[in-house]
Amino acid sequence: xxxxxxxxxxxxxxxxxxxxxxxxxxxxxxxxxxxxxxxxxxxxxxxxxxxxxxxxxxxxxxxxxxxxxxxxxxxxxxxxxxxxxxxxxxxxxxxxxxxxxxxxxxxxxxxxxxxxxxxxxxxxxxxxxxxxxxxxxxxxxxxxxxxxxxxxxxxxxxxxxxxxxxxxxxxxxxxxxxxxxxxxxxxxxxxxxxxxxxxxxxxxxxxxxxxxxxxxxxxxxxx
Length: 223
Known about the structure:
Layout: E1 8-9, E2 12-13, E3 18-20, E4 30-33, E5 36-39, E6 58-59, E7 71-76, H1 78-87, E8 99-100, E9 103-109, E10 121-123, H2 133-139, E11 147-166, E12 174-181, E13 191-206, H3 215-221
Parallel strand pairs: 6-13
Antiparallel strand pairs: 1-2, 3-7, 4-5, 8-9, 9-11, 10-13, 11-12, 11-13
Helix pairs in contact: 2-3
Protein name: Phage protein
Organism: Streptomyces graminofaciens
């Protein structure tokens, strides 16, 4: 059985994947390298970036000091977010997420008016356990008042969300926006990753009320 989050800040439970202010690290400059971009302090003698992660992505740097400082509810801590995605852990408590014959449980922003949604939806929010659904629906800035529950039978961890850069005439590349890039996208080596992204398939939609987690349950969870 999953457990509620053990850390709180100003009376509010803090999700497992949320960052804390004292986990921030000084950010080195992003420079152009022979194979895309690199952090200024990690360019090898051959001009290539050092310390790349999976599939050639540079990852935003974080310290591991969970609970230290102020809780940053709207900022994901990249190492914990990646761990939750890879192990399919609950984003709130860090325990096992819920799964049944219809698949793994996720909360998504509600786009049921979009044709074909939510099949092949791409999300950076890890799954959830049943215990933590009301907390996530109530407290997550991205889900508050517009959350819908889904179950996905198939989950592909195939994307990286982060800041994409473009080359310039000088040593410093130009940030062009924040996007999800996939394995076949050459821009992976021009991206500073912030979160893993999952593509959900064979998806079934539920109302939170169907799970017994309507407005009253969400209100009680945040009390």
